[in-house]
């Protein structure tokens, strides 16, 4: 078998939005570990999630994340199965439960800022599950192309448990560049951020957040696992009987934060292979200089790509009209509709893969996550220039 | 890198209970596919879950399962993230919802048969979530060592949506060998079975079940994915508003059966690598003769192991006292407590790995899932004989 196939590959120029590109060296190491892991006679996917080597994978991944994001002692890191969707469902139960615990059974409101399709889905889910949702901003009328200043958002009442934002909207390519301070956010209202598509791409002041969560399969791993970083004071829950008496629905046990945390993310069977990949990706980031280094590269990548697209304003259109909020991860753009197929065809011929926009918005999208090299982006820039020159 | 490491391994003699052994050839193929999948420039874990190759992985896996288990047209196959725990949580919401849909908003009861720790956890979760649970049998007083005949179970009232059984209790090593017929199960009460640790080990008459589900990580894959086989008439749900008016809690959207099924198991991001492994495992089973062939081997394996243990009745003790219900997958046994460490030490020296029992029950457990070869079991039998002879 090994005489025909190999674990080598030509470095891909791959711009898929997720599941997304991972470092080849990480995948190679994971491939070997899938067959035989360290001193075991079997591979990493075959060992008990409560065995010593599995616990070490979990602990090492946590420790890498703590180092990379400089996570303070006030916060806890844990993992659960699922992605963004299970994330936003489980957060509303747990945070409303915790708010009730801290406020004599009072049911808090959940504030949502809608800046694209993911924050919209999150708010809809909280409403669907029966929680009391307050939409404080919805940029639909701006076609999700800008974020108004916090001073223009609806004010948040003090009986609100948390404000939920999607820090980077993968579909619409819009990313926050600052977070609400005490001018906007009342004391005691916690900030919750979905960072599924931009975690570990930039420095974040974790102390400012109640919860940060991120599905692994965009910037840092394969599908199946979600990272949670939670302020420790937000973990505790009322008893099940108390929740019932308050009229707060109970979260399925696999997503009950105190249970998951008390069991070191292995109450139920953690997908240990997915966690192992996350460990390898984070270890590699640390080796390569940490967040500061990757952030500089990510910023350079998005800078040269947006600059190229902006050179042809009558040909390429950037739906995120405010340059400040253009995503460093998902560069969304359109071009004349009749040339879209040609753009995809010719880019594919040059081995620039995965540029088609999300089915819900159309156009093009270049996702330039951490694993996408500056070299790949330079090749894309060259093509962007060439295509405009030949077709404008 | 490839000059030092290799994708070969010595065939393990591995008896871990889950995550568990997988065929080496499957892992090798998956390892190559992790780096570069078919015509893609990237690996199977890096492609969109809605791309053609990903959809083909999902469809092929479904098709393999339909062939292997002879699943009739009356039933639908789908996948969701998670394992047994997310499985038993999501089933109660969906089946009680469906019952209400078919019965003018009436809230049905959920009957549970407790024959070990997994069925116990399932019943507790349904109760915890606020559903109306009826325990029809609990074999705790039999130390989960036998299953009384259905005629001795509590009768099931007609306003019951389903009867839940755990077909094979992984921790206690007890497995059903027949299923309740119309003598016991009233018409319209659906049979739900957790087959997480014995799916694809034996022929099953799927038409008799309302739902069969199985976490992949024991007999057929790595952790992160669960298989569901559901009678099509049980899929439909009331609207969210109807559910609220009935007082039935809503399931998180990622576990709402109609939504998952309408999106071909990719409403949210399916862990496509885990699904790919499942596809490879099921394809290999088909190649090797299907269920009939594997069932014959599995029965032979458990037969020789139980026979060996039974030869030394004053030395080895089998907690499942009724031989009929001894699991073909998880062979649980004890020996004099003071010799346990020695047994583990000496078996490990012979490269017989993973024999320690579950922390909640102690003793020994040899999990002899599909991927464990008859040869491995013969080596274990030899050791079982030798250890008794030397120490009895």
What are the salient characteristics of this protein?
homodimer; 392 residues; alpha/beta; Aspartate Aminotransferase, domain 2; Aspartate Aminotransferase, domain 1; 2 domains; seven-stranded mixed β-sheet; two-stranded parallel ribbon; 10 helices; 13 strands; 35% helix; 15% strand
Concise overview:
With 392 residues, chain A is an alpha/beta fold. Helices cover 35% and strands 15% of the residues of chain A. Chain A starts with 12 loop residues before the first strand and ends with a helix.
Would you kindly provide a written description of the structure presented here, covering whatever features stand out?
Two copies of one chain form a homodimer. By secondary structure, chain A is of the alpha/beta class. Chain A has two domains: 234 residues, 3-Layer(aba) Sandwich (Aspartate Aminotransferase, domain 2); 102 residues, Alpha-Beta Complex (Aspartate Aminotransferase, domain 1), CATH 3.90.1150.10. Helices cover 35% and strands 15% of the residues of chain A. In chain A, the strands form four sheets. Chain A has a seven-stranded mixed sheet, with helices on both faces. A two-stranded parallel sheet of chain A has the order 1-12. In chain A, strand 3, helix 4 and strand 4 form a beta-alpha-beta unit. The mean pLDDT of chain A is 96. At the A-B interface, strand 1, helix 1, helix 3 and helix 7 of A face strand 1, helix 1, helix 3 and helix 7 of B.
């Amino acid at each position: 078998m090994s005489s025909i196939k190999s674990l080598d590959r030509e470095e891909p120029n791959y711009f898929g939005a997720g599941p997304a590109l991972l470092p080849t060296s990480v995948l190679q190491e994971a491939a070997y570990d899938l067959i035989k892991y360290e001193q075991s006679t079997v591979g990493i996917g075959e060992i008990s999630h409560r065995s010593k080597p599995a616990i070490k994978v979990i602990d090492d991944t946590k420790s890498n994340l703590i180092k990379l994001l400089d996570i303070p002692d006030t916060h806890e890191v844990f993992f659960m199965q699922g992605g963004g969707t299970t994330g936003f469902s489980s957060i509303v139960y747990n945070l409303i439960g915790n708010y009730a615990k801290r406020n004599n059974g009072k049911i808090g409101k959940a504030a949502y800022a809608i800046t694209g399709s993911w924050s919209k889905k999150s708010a809809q889910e909280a409403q669907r599950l029966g929680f009391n949702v307050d939409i404080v901003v919805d940029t639909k009328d701006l076609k999700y192309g800008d974020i108004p200043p916090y001073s223009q958002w609806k004010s948040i009442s003090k009986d609100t448990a948390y404000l939920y934002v999607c820090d980077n909207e993968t579909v619409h390519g819009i990313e926050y560049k600052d977070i609400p301070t005490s001018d906007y956010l009342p004391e005691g209202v916690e900030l919750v951020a979905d960072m599924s598509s931009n975690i570990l791409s930039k420095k974040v002041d974790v102390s400012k957040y109640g919860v940060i969560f991120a599905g692994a399969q965009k910037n840092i791993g394969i599908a199946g696992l979600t990272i949670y970083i939670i302020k420790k004071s937000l973990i505790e829950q009322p008893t099940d009987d108390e929740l019932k008496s308050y009229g707060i629905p109970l979260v399925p046990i696999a997503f009950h934060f105190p249970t998951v945390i008390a069991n070191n993310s292995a109450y139920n069977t953690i997908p240990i292979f997915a966690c192992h990949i996350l460990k390898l990706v984070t270890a590699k980031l640390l080796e390569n200089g940490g967040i500061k280094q990757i952030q500089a590269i990510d910023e350079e990548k998005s800078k040269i790509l947006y600059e190229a697209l902006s050179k042809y304003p009558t040909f390429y259109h950037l739906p995120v009209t405010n340059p400040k909020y253009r995503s460093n991860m998902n560069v969304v753009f359109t071009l004349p509709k009749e040339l879209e197929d040609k753009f995809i065809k010719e880019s594919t011929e040059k081995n620039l893969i995965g540029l088609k926009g999300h089915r819900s918005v159309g156009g093009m999208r270049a996702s330039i996550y951490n694993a996408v090299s500056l070299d790949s982006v330079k090749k894309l820039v060259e093509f962007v220039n060439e295509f405009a020159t030949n077709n404008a």
